[in-house]
Amino acid sequence: MNRASRKMNRIALICAAVSCVLGTPASAAPRDKALEAALRAHITVLASAEYGGREPGTDGEEKTLRYLGRKWFEMGLQSGTNDPGHEWFKPVTLVAREPAGSTAMFMRKGKPIALPQAEVLMLTSGQRSLLTNAPLLFVGKGQADYSRAELAGRVAVLLSGAEDDGKRQDSLLRAGAGAVLTVLDGERTIAEVSARRKRSGYALASEKLGGDLEGFITNEAFESLLSPVGQSLAALEREASAPAFAPRALDMTATLEATTRETRIKTHNLIGKIAGRKPDAGAVLFLAHWDHFGQCAEPPAENLICNGAIDNASGLAGLTEIAARLAKGPAPDRDIYFLATTAEELGLLGAQAFAENPPIPLTSFVAAFNLDSIAIAPANTPLAIVGLGMTKLDPLIAQVAKAEKRKLITADNGANAYVKRQDGWALLKHDVPTVMVTSAYGDLARMEKYFETDYHRPTDIASPKIELGGAAQDVQFHVALGRFFADTRKVPAAVR
Question: Which stretches within 47-135 are classed as H helix?
Fold first, then answer.
């Protein structure tokens, strides 16, 4: 191996050990001060006190969508809803649910077992869920794979874990359990669980009554269910720890019911588009969420409103300036859609609504690019891909980065840890190739500092100190992405 080959081999090893970066690192790209000023102007308006934190269903929503809709119309976009009854603003109905009623009755051999209702808490994700005379199946720690035949119509009785984040319960429900009943470990009380779950949960509106049925029972109450037949919780815990543990039926049935109080919120996605010359060839999608939390603090705090300047007025500003630049250029081959989603902060619900009722078939989207919290990094920070390796877009993005002389991180730098926390995830789950290409995650230390300080707090304001160097360059790069992916010669077919 010659000296040059040994040098190249060392470079390859270094690339494998750290985040490999492609692109031309020559001289720093000139900053577009006019673009930075335009971004700042949008952020200043959208994150102002007048907009009240952009909470769905409020005056802040109306002001936000009116501002964006007017800007998009003036720059030459047309409505992208493809719905004559709802041009530009696509309705999305949310429901906020909070627990209302909880009933649990247990029986053995047809005889009821007395148990104080305060010792059991039943919860549902729907309006009302009811399971009658269902056998109890002890599943221990719930970490095995269960068949639908084992769980269907049964109450899976689960031992509480050190970190109950709901994943085991969700897994059992997905596998077919009629309900999951978690036996508390004694460290948590029913009152503590109730207080934590008392807050409203949000979902897209549905006419379905039912939902997942989940319950919690104190260890003392569960012990009293077992003792009449000579069983004990301690014995079941030992059984669950055995390597050969298998789920087994408990000699009792349960009738369980939970209800919720429901509040409906009328909100909207905003959808615009640039019409392409070959709309049958598919489309490109750019998106950013417009919503934030509204009032998020209580007196005597001085600042009560979460204005969401970085999250996500900056993404909206970027989306709007991308649209402005693409609208000024020659007509693309493909349609280019622009989507401002509602209710991202409530669980990616606006993106989910878009995916469930899209303006064109989801299979038509060649690529989708999400913009979220882009005002983080200074100019000339490398680009990272949130969603790296999850689509077939990566090599094509790398081509654009090379042409634009942008550094691109092509090995995992940790950004994918955040993939489920942004709207792109809702689209990925519907097989739309979606990524975030952003300098904000090109320097994770900066991003994580933001998460630890101003993120989702009243201090996320339109300060003159907001960094827009990287955001402006991200806009320029997304314009290049839009032109590239909308060109049927460069991307001849959907990338899936």
Answer: 59-74
Count of CB atoms situated within 10 Å of the CB of 150: 17
**pLDDT at res. 161:** 76
Q: Which residues contact residue 134 at a Cβ distance below 8 angstroms, ignoring those fewer than 6 apart?
A: 153, 154, 155, 178, 179, 253, 254, 255, 256
Q: Which letter does DSSP use for residue 119 in this model?
A: G
pLDDT tens digits for range 350-407: 999 999 999 999 999 999 999 999 999 999 999 999 999 999 999 999 999 999 999 9
CA distance 469 to 473: 7
pLDDT band per the 50, 70, 90 thresholds, residue 22: low
For the chain, domains (ranges, CATH) are: 22-87+275-485 (3.40.630.10), 95-262 (3.50.30.30)
Q: Stretch 265-283: mean pLDDT, rounded?
A: 97
CB 277 within 8 A of CB 93: no
C-alpha span between 215 and 182 (Å, rounded): 6
What is the model's pTM? 0.83
Residues 6+ apart with CB under 8 A from 49: 305, 307
Distance CA(496)–CA(481), nearest Å, equals: 17
What DSSP element (H or E) covers 188?
none
Contact 321, 397 (CB under 8 A): no
Interatomic CA distance for residues 41 and 317, integer angstroms:
8
Rounded to 5 degrees, φ, ψ at 383 are: -85, 140
pLDDT at 172 over 80: yes
CA torsion sign, 46 to 48 to 53 to 55? negative
Which is more confident, 234 or 25? 234
Structure tokens at 332: 């693309």
What is the structure's pLDDT at 125?
85
* Angstrom distance (rounded) from CA 83 to CA 393: 30
Which residues have a Cβ under 8 Å from the Cβ of 46 and sit 6 or more positions away?
Answer: 54, 64, 67, 290, 309, 313, 316, 317
Backbone torsion region of residue 110, taken as left when φ is above 0, otherwise alpha when ψ lies between -120 and 50, otherwise beta: left
Secondary structure (H, E, C), 458-478? CCCCCCCCCCCHHHHHHHHHH
DSSP-assigned letter for residue 153: T
Asked if 142 and 227 count as a contact pair (C-beta separation under 8 A), the reply is no
Exposed, middle or buried, 406 (CB in 10 Å: 0-12/13-18/19+)? buried
